[in-house]
Amino acid sequence: MKIATFNINGIKARIETLPRWLDEAQPDVALLQEIKSVDEAFPREIFEERGYTVETHGMKSFNGVAILSKLPLEDVTRGLPGDDNDEQARYIEATVMGERPIRVCGLYLPNGNPAPGPKYDYKLAWMKRLQARAETLLAQEEPFLMAGDYNIIPQDEDAAKPEDWQEDALARPESRAAYRRLLNLGLTEAFRARNKMAGMYSFWDYQAGAWNRNNGIRIDHFLLSPQCADLLLDCQIDKEERGRSKPSDHVPVWIDLAA
DNA sequence: ATGGTCGCTGGGCGA
């Protein structure tokens, strides 16, 4: 089973790019971030006619996540538990009913800039809630994954120019420590588990010719529970998408599971 | 080089 994560940076702007990528890459499941659309305006027919079930958790203008799946979805939940006052649409979960059911959590972790400040406090608080959710799911000892735009550069090798990011919310020590605490629960970061080579990125800024200079960062990740990691066959980045017409500033990352 | 470029939206914010 092929599961992908893709921060599309606006469904309206990706109305041709996204279906073309789906037709070529043929993921069974696609976790989308930054749909930047309310649920009612999401063009679900485009995906349904390709055989996908569509579940969205959107809001006006910003953020928004979605799950596309060729397999049935059960127990869809929207929003990250732990703060009833959080109105930002950044999290969705569902169980993919393949031969082995897998709980998938699609997330758009807060950017957190400028740091320090209230936006950074929100990011760290959100990561604490994500930690709690991971602990709850781990206790069930079933296959699950948390994937999406983490807005975290895990290590210096995950940035072309790490010196540019030292004070940034994506790479500050508190950000990296919170991400490391997640991993230390026993989750496997799929790309690092399957690729030894550094210099692989998932985001290139639109500004200052970042793509042409390969000035990228790796911030889109798959974290797998032990039972899910046992099924991991491969993890790759569809880097070439960034060089095509009307690209998102992120590219898809995908895993292949023996499930 | 304190800029640069996108997307959503309809002015300015977010990234």
From TrEMBL:
Matching InterPro entries: AP_endonuc_1, AP_endonuclease_F1_CS, Endo/exonu/phosph_ase_sf, Endo/exonuclease/phosphatase, ExoIII-like
Similarity comment: family membership: Belongs to the DNA repair enzymes AP/ExoA family.
Top-rank EC class of the record's enzyme: hydrolase
Organism name: Shimia marina
Site (Important for catalytic activity): residue numbering on this chain: 220
Annotated site residues (Transition state stabilizer) in this chain: 151
PROSITE patterns assigned: AP_NUCLEASE_F1_3, AP_NUCLEASE_F1_4
Enzyme Commission number, as recorded: 3.1.11.2
Pfam families attached to this UniProt entry: Exo_endo_phos
Positions of the record's site feature: Interaction with DNA substrate: 250
Cofactor annotation comment: Probably binds two magnesium or manganese ions per subunit.
Active site per the UniProt annotation: 108, 149 (proton donor/acceptor), 250 (proton acceptor)
Alphabetic keyword roster: Hydrolase, Magnesium, Manganese, Metal-binding
Protein name, per record: Exodeoxyribonuclease III
